[in-house]
Amino acid sequence: MASLAQAIQTFHKGDLSRNEFLAQIDRALALERSNWQRLREILSEENTRGMLPPDIYAELQRRIEHAPDPESEVGETRLRTESAAALPAGQGGYMEVADPDRMKGIGDTINGRFVLEECLGFGGMGTVYKALDLRKLEASDRKPYIAIKVLNVQFRGHPKSLITLQREAKKAQALAHPNIVRVYDFDREGPVVYLTMEYLAGKPLSQVLRAPGFSGMPYAEALRIVTGMGRGLAYAHQQGFVHCDLKPANVFLTDKGEVKVIDFGIARAFHKPEDDAEATVFDPGSLGGLTPAYASPEMVEHREPDPRDDIYGLACITYEMVSGHHPFNRLSGAEARNAGMKPERPRQLGYRQWQALKNALCFERARRTPSVEAFLQGFAGDNTAARNAAVIAGAVALALLVGAGVGYYLEFRDSGTNEQAATVTPTAPATTEPPARISAAPAAPAAPAESKAAAPSRAPAQSAAPAAAPTASQATAPTPPQPAALSLAAVEPVLAAQPCALLAPAVRGDTLQVQGFLPDAVGAARLRELLTAVPGVGNLDLQVAPLGQDKCGVVSVLAPYWLANRKAGTPATLRVKGASAPSAQAMQAAPLVEGDKLVLDLTTPAYDAYVTVDYFALDGSVLHMVPSPRARENRTPPSYSATIGGSGNWVIAKPFGTELIALIVTPAPLFDAMRPESEPKAAYLKALEQRLNGLGAEHGRQRIAVDVLQVTTRPRRP
Question: What are 254-311's pLDDT values in tens digits?
């Protein structure tokens, strides 16, 4: 194993040429073929310590993933992992794992014509290569090179990926403009789907912005790039298209000084002609291919696209160019808006330029700059255009408010010199908690308050006014005692006293329902006895699954977040595919048999989040299913749902027994760096508890949601 890590470290020092490095990698693979999964883990760990060039990383990943999966590994781990990366496909889609034998990489030839020579970069849909066109070479063409985008294997698994690429080619061919990359055609070779386009010599804008020590570029240089981007976007908008994923990586700066907007891969028509029958057939935006840091609040919320969404992304890039950092610390527009953040005025911008940029960064569409042309005029210093743009945006917003019945419109305008920076602690917005699934029984009406001068006892007090004489029955028959009303306040202490338990109560009249997991040491009979003794319990609906003592460490860390998730109506769920609503049966899945595929359905709360799925095995280890070296992408949009394991990437193997799977949803990445795919449970739980406490203190514990699933496995009978 050390040979691979040492080779990467030596390469980082500059002591190996590319060919020498790859030769060492081949030797390492030849020696360690029996453990190719661990080789991929090492590659991920070393790349985290020091980023490898994209083409080197792609080539290493390709060589490792082509290594055979030896039969000797079957049964050595609780969950046998097969194939390559598992990534979320989009709202309601699949987190799939594709066959690495279907990948194309450097040195491969596509359709006997295009030789992939160099990796140029990665996009949301595919990997872009510099390719030699053998047909052009044969014809002695002076420019035989093209760029070719090969669909990522996880995207290629989407049932409509070919439709997506065909749409991209058609749209891009229609967008013939000097500031938009020229697209030639799309085609396929077996399962490999690709797009050909003009080859550009230069670098993406993202490479400039991410360079070490970058702190902003001169205004004149930024204006040149912004103008090029804006002209390309304005032309696309005139043709009825919104880019929908404008970011620095999709802006290319050529060696000739040209600015090109690339990758209209998820562009969606905002003008849908009636005669365009295919306009409603497929919406690439459904794939969720947007970059949150440059996405407007409306895009994050999956609203219909609008040119002002591109204006928001253009403004974020412009701000980053002139200041050296993102206006909202790389939060999405929705997150920044909800946190009450305000961008700080870059020092090198004058008042006119800052007003233009600030208007384009508005979180509300109605107040955002209405067109790219207006933004370019304002940012270039045309005060009249900037003022007109602000007036138009303000008038639209005022009209909307008046139409909604609002009698006045108050807008705060700062001077542009005393604004709060986005890095200061934002003002917490008012939040509305979701209705609790578990509610207390209604309280009895309060009795009238007594005067402090009244007698302390409940005996009839003397009164100046004459009292009605009691009847015979009132004088002789005592008032019967009223039964105590059932309340959560009486139930929760009983449940909290049970060690190593996950128990969620619900009260409906005199019926108490309790769901969750109960340790074997307590037992359902004992818990039933304790709960029926609670005042007010008339009926008891107990739905609990037994829990082994070895699960107590996991339970103690996750219990508070699991209970909060249940009280909030279970916005985060984890189930074996096909299971019904949350119940003891859903939490305690039907037994799985050796060789079965483990396929899980999950959902997330109504906010941007990061998903972690952990499998706590019988052998004292934890397998990180998502994220992991083969399942890196784990950020989800609000109210996200997906299925993981649909391609058979997790298969049940020995040892057999009962184990836990946990879904942990957090508002920020759970850990700063990728953890090894498998590690000791005790060490991980300690780190997990510390990290959850930190995230809770920073973002609020209510933004952490946990669901737990227990699975039982057994060997396949002959």
Answer: 999 999 998 775 555 555 444 444 443 444 444 445 678 899 999 888 888 899 999 9
- Of 381-385, 431-435, 687-691, the range with the highest mean pLDDT is 687-691
What are 539-543's contacts with CB under 8 Å, separation 24+? 539/510, 539/511, 539/512, 540/511, 540/512, 540/514, 541/511, 541/512, 541/513, 541/514, 542/513, 542/514, 543/513, 543/514, 543/515, 543/516, 543/583, 543/584
Q: Among 242, 312, 289, which residue's Cα sits nearest to residue 122? A: 289
Pick the closest to residue 641 from 614, 601, 609, 612 (CA basis). 601
Question: For the domain 204-269+288-403, what is the CATH code?
Answer: 1.10.510.10
On the question of a cis peptide bond just before residue 655, with omega within 30 degrees of 0, the verdict is yes
- Considering only CA atoms, which of 283, 333, 287 is closest in space to residue 304? 283
> Could you tell me if 457 and 382 are in contact, meaning their C-beta atoms sit under 8 angstroms apart?
no
For the residues 368-376, what does the mean pLDDT come to? 95
Q: Are 315 and 361 in contact (CB under 8 A)?
A: yes
Please write the tens of the pLDDT for every residue from 604-644. 998 889 999 999 988 888 999 888 876 677 888 888 888 88
CA distances (Å), 164 to each of 187, 280, 656, in order? 12, 13, 43
Q: What is the 3-class SS of 382-406, one letter each residue?
A: CHHHHHHHHHHHHHHHHHHHHHCCC
pLDDT tens, position by position, 695-714: 999 999 999 999 999 988 88
Task: Please state, in angstroms and as integers, the Cα–Cα distance from residue 92 to each residue in 141, 268, 603, 611, 662, following that order.
Answer: 46, 19, 9, 15, 20
| Cβ contacts of 33 within 8 Å, gap of 6 or more | 67, 68, 70
**Angstrom distance (rounded) from CA 27 to CA 8:** 13
Residues 6+ positions from 642 with CB-CB distance below 8 Å: 88, 89, 92, 93, 94, 95, 601, 602, 636
Instruction: Provide the pLDDT confidence category of residue 406 given band limits of 50, 70 and 90.
Output: very low
DSSP secondary structure string for all residues of 139-153: TT-S--EEEEEEEPH
H or E, element range at 133: strand 126-133
State the Cα–Cα distance between residues 102 and 157, nearest whole angstrom: 11
Segments making up each domain of the chain, as ranges: 2-73, 78-99+548-718, 104-198, 204-269+288-403, 487-543
pTM of the model: 0.44
Q: Return the structure tokens found at 589.
A: 């899945």
pLDDT, tens digit, 9 for 90 and up, residues 658-679: 899 999 999 999 998 888 888 8
- Across the strands, what pairs with 183? 197
Query: Of 711, 684, 432, whose CA–CA distance to 558 is shortest?
Result: 684
Taking the C-alpha atoms of residue 601 and residue 579, their distance in angstroms, rounded to an integer, is 9
- Residue range 104-198, CATH number: 3.30.200.20
DSSP strand pairing (641-644 vs 94-97): parallel
